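Section 5: illustrative case.
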Protein backbone atom coordinates (compact mmCIF):
# COMPACT_ATOMS: atom_id res chain seq x y z
CA UNK A 1 0.00 0.00 0.00
CA UNK A 2 1.24 3.47 -0.84
CA UNK A 3 1.43 6.29 1.71
CA UNK A 4 -1.65 7.89 0.10
CA UNK A 5 -3.63 4.65 0.30
CA UNK A 6 -2.64 4.20 3.94
CA UNK A 7 -3.80 7.76 4.67
CA UNK A 8 -7.15 7.14 2.94
CA UNK A 9 -7.69 3.88 4.86
CA UNK A 10 -6.72 5.61 8.13
CA UNK A 11 -9.46 8.18 7.47
CA UNK A 12 -11.90 5.50 6.31
CA UNK A 13 -11.49 3.53 9.53
CA UNK A 14 -12.18 6.69 11.52
CA UNK A 15 -8.58 7.40 12.54
CA UNK A 16 -8.50 3.93 14.07
CA UNK A 17 -11.82 4.08 15.92
CA UNK A 18 -13.33 1.49 13.56
CA UNK A 19 -10.57 -1.03 14.23
CA UNK A 20 -11.80 -2.06 17.65
CA UNK A 21 -12.78 -5.75 17.57
CA UNK A 22 -16.33 -5.32 18.89
CA UNK A 23 -18.98 -2.82 17.71
CA UNK A 24 -16.79 -0.68 15.39
CA UNK A 25 -19.80 1.37 14.23
CA UNK A 26 -20.65 2.26 17.81
CA UNK A 27 -17.06 3.28 18.53
CA UNK A 28 -16.91 5.28 15.28
CA UNK A 29 -20.12 7.07 16.24
CA UNK A 30 -18.77 7.74 19.73
CA UNK A 31 -15.53 9.10 18.25
CA UNK A 32 -17.64 11.42 16.08
CA UNK A 33 -18.89 13.11 19.25
CA UNK A 34 -15.57 14.98 19.43
CA UNK A 35 -16.85 17.04 16.49
CA UNK A 36 -19.64 18.58 18.62
CA UNK A 37 -17.52 21.45 20.01
CA UNK A 38 -16.35 22.17 16.48
CA UNK A 39 -19.93 22.26 15.18
CA UNK A 40 -20.96 24.54 18.02
CA UNK A 41 -18.08 26.90 17.24
CA UNK A 42 -18.90 26.84 13.51
CA UNK A 43 -22.59 27.65 13.97
CA UNK A 44 -25.49 26.10 12.08
CA UNK A 45 -24.83 27.17 8.46
CA UNK A 46 -21.09 26.47 8.57
CA UNK A 47 -21.75 23.11 10.20
CA UNK A 48 -24.08 22.15 7.36
CA UNK A 49 -21.39 23.14 4.85
CA UNK A 50 -18.77 21.14 6.77
CA UNK A 51 -21.02 18.07 6.92
CA UNK A 52 -21.73 18.33 3.17
CA UNK A 53 -17.98 18.49 2.54
CA UNK A 54 -17.38 15.61 4.97
CA UNK A 55 -20.03 13.57 3.14
CA UNK A 56 -18.69 14.30 -0.33
CA UNK A 57 -15.14 13.46 0.77
CA UNK A 58 -16.58 10.41 2.51
CA UNK A 59 -17.95 9.02 -0.74
CA UNK A 60 -14.40 8.88 -2.07
CA UNK A 61 -12.74 7.87 1.22
CA UNK A 62 -15.21 5.07 2.00
CA UNK A 63 -15.30 3.80 -1.57
CA UNK A 64 -11.51 3.78 -1.87
CA UNK A 65 -11.10 2.20 1.59
CA UNK A 66 -13.53 -0.58 0.64
CA UNK A 67 -11.66 -1.09 -2.63
CA UNK A 68 -8.26 -1.25 -0.90
CA UNK A 69 -9.59 -3.58 1.81
CA UNK A 70 -11.42 -5.60 -0.87
CA UNK A 71 -14.71 -5.50 1.05
CA UNK A 72 -18.07 -3.76 0.65
CA UNK A 73 -19.19 -1.58 3.56
CA UNK A 74 -17.04 -3.41 6.07
CA UNK A 75 -17.88 -2.58 9.68
CA UNK A 76 -14.40 -1.14 10.17
CA UNK A 77 -15.19 1.67 7.70
CA UNK A 78 -16.69 4.31 9.96
CA UNK A 79 -16.14 7.66 8.20
CA UNK A 80 -19.82 7.38 7.27
CA UNK A 81 -20.71 7.31 10.97
CA UNK A 82 -18.93 10.65 11.36
CA UNK A 83 -21.27 12.31 8.88
CA UNK A 84 -24.45 10.56 10.02
CA UNK A 85 -23.80 11.17 13.70
CA UNK A 86 -23.05 14.85 12.98
CA UNK A 87 -26.31 15.27 11.02
CA UNK A 88 -28.20 13.99 14.07
CA UNK A 89 -27.22 17.08 16.07
CA UNK A 90 -28.26 19.74 13.52
CA UNK A 91 -31.63 20.52 15.20
CA UNK A 92 -29.87 20.94 18.56
CA UNK A 93 -27.30 23.29 17.06
CA UNK A 94 -30.00 25.28 15.27
CA UNK A 95 -32.20 25.59 18.35
CA UNK A 96 -29.31 26.08 20.79
CA UNK A 97 -30.39 23.07 22.83
CA UNK A 98 -27.16 21.06 22.95
CA UNK A 99 -26.61 19.37 26.31
CA UNK A 100 -25.09 16.17 27.63
CA UNK A 101 -28.60 14.68 27.80
CA UNK A 102 -29.26 15.46 24.13
CA UNK A 103 -25.84 14.14 23.10
CA UNK A 104 -26.77 10.79 24.67
CA UNK A 105 -30.22 10.81 23.07
CA UNK A 106 -28.79 11.75 19.68
CA UNK A 107 -26.11 9.09 19.92
CA UNK A 108 -28.71 6.46 20.84
CA UNK A 109 -31.13 7.49 18.10
CA UNK A 110 -28.45 7.48 15.42
CA UNK A 111 -27.20 4.04 16.48
CA UNK A 112 -30.80 2.74 16.57
CA UNK A 113 -31.52 3.85 13.00
CA UNK A 114 -28.07 2.78 11.76
CA UNK A 115 -28.50 -0.75 13.16
CA UNK A 116 -32.26 -1.18 12.63
CA UNK A 117 -32.16 0.23 9.06
CA UNK A 118 -35.84 1.14 8.55
CA UNK A 119 -37.05 2.28 5.12
CA UNK A 120 -35.41 3.78 3.06
CA UNK A 121 -32.12 2.94 4.80
CA UNK A 122 -32.59 -0.78 4.16
CA UNK A 123 -33.23 -0.18 0.45
CA UNK A 124 -30.13 2.00 0.09
CA UNK A 125 -28.06 -0.52 2.07
CA UNK A 126 -29.06 -3.34 -0.32
CA UNK A 127 -29.18 -1.53 -3.65
CA UNK A 128 -26.60 1.27 -3.68
CA UNK A 129 -22.98 0.22 -3.90
CA UNK A 130 -19.58 1.84 -3.58
CA UNK A 131 -18.79 4.94 -1.60
CA UNK A 132 -22.23 6.44 -2.24
CA UNK A 133 -23.96 3.42 -0.72
CA UNK A 134 -21.61 3.32 2.26
CA UNK A 135 -22.25 7.00 3.00
CA UNK A 136 -25.92 7.28 2.09
CA UNK A 137 -27.39 4.80 4.56
CA UNK A 138 -25.69 6.60 7.47
CA UNK A 139 -26.68 10.02 6.14
CA UNK A 140 -30.31 8.86 6.07
CA UNK A 141 -29.97 7.36 9.58
CA UNK A 142 -28.67 10.75 10.74
CA UNK A 143 -31.60 12.51 9.07
CA UNK A 144 -34.10 10.14 10.74
CA UNK A 145 -32.48 10.74 14.15
CA UNK A 146 -32.43 14.52 13.55
CA UNK A 147 -36.10 14.47 12.56
CA UNK A 148 -37.00 12.63 15.79
CA UNK A 149 -35.12 15.23 17.86
CA UNK A 150 -36.62 18.12 15.90
CA UNK A 151 -40.17 16.73 16.20
CA UNK A 152 -39.83 16.24 19.94
CA UNK A 153 -38.38 19.71 20.50
CA UNK A 154 -40.87 21.34 18.14
CA UNK A 155 -43.91 19.88 19.85
CA UNK A 156 -42.64 20.38 23.40
CA UNK A 157 -41.33 23.92 22.89
CA UNK A 158 -44.51 25.31 21.29
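Designed sequence:
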Amino acid sequence: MSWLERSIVFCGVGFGSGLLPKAPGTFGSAFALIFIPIWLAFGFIHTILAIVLMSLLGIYICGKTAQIMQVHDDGRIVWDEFAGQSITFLPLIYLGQMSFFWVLIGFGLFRLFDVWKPWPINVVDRQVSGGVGIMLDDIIAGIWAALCIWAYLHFTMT
